[in-house]
Write a structure and sequence with these properties.
By secondary structure, the chain is of the alpha+beta class. The chain is 27% helix and 23% strand. The chain is built from 5 helices and 8 strands; from the N terminus they run E-H-H-E-H-E-E-E-H-E-H-E-E. It starts with 14 loop residues before the first strand and ends in a 15-residue tail after the last strand.
């Protein structure tokens, strides 16, 4: 759901919030429009299920969700990036997912969308919470988001985690091979990223039919 309040549980559970717009409408819609809305919802659910395994590997009491657009959360994210020596420049261009454990923000990852291409950025995990699966879960979440949005590929720049991202399907490419759409990203112009390794992964994903769908830096 995108609007409902999640139920309360009396024991520690993992919470994963995947906002999916309700395809139903209070007003009658043409059948073709209605089918498109329901197929989009089915596709969003199908690609999100790709990230489910990594979500279930998180510690109990962990929660993953899109970052709320409030100043307090933004300050928490910026503090985490600073602690991980990652730049916050251009953060407003990214769709951020965050992970909390017991209310504390422990990890984040962002995806900038430029045309049909995405730029994965700001993958950060607080040092005491590394090697617990948070990076894997948030990278999987952002890739699922990219597929749900119909992006062709997701690229990234890294100065120290090329081996890590390589294990997750990203392949190194020459900097001048990055999609031209990404030139609008602040990240590509940062001096700290000038010598970073460029990597990319395809987001081509089979769309579901009418009845359904097909450690840390």
């Amino acid at each position: 759901c995108a609007e409902e309040v999640c139920p309360a549980f009396l024991r520690p559970v993992r919470r994963v919030h995947w906002p999916v717009p309700d395809p139903a409408s209070a007003e009658p819609l043409p059948e073709t429009v209605s089918r498109l809305r329901f197929r989009r919802a089915a596709r969003l659910i199908a690609v999100r299920l790709d990230a489910l395994e990594s979500m279930l590997a998180l510690p109990p009491r962990a929660s993953v969700m899109p970052a709320p657009a409030d100043p307090e959360t933004r300050a928490e994210i910026e503090a985490l990036l600073a602690a991980c020596s990652l730049p916050a420049d251009g953060l407003g261009d990214a769709r951020i997912a965050i992970a909390r454990e017991g209310g504390e923000l422990v990890a984040c990852a962002g995806l900038e969308v430029w045309g049909e291409h995405g730029l994965l950025r700001s993958v950060a995990v607080a040092p005491p919470h590394r090697r617990l699966g948070y990076a894997e879960a948030l990278v999987a979440d952002r890739l699922a988001y990219a597929r749900g949005e119909g992006l062709a590929a997701v690229s990234l720049l890294t100065t120290s985690a090329a081996t890590y991202f390589g294990r997750h399907g990203f392949a190194p490419i020459q900097r001048d091979q990055l999609p031209s759409d990404l030139a609008r990203s602040t990240q590509l112009g940062l001096g700290v990223c000038a010598t970073a390794t460029a990597m990319t992964i395809s987001c081509i994903h089979p769309a579901p039919g009418p009845s359904g769908g097909s450690e840390a830096p």
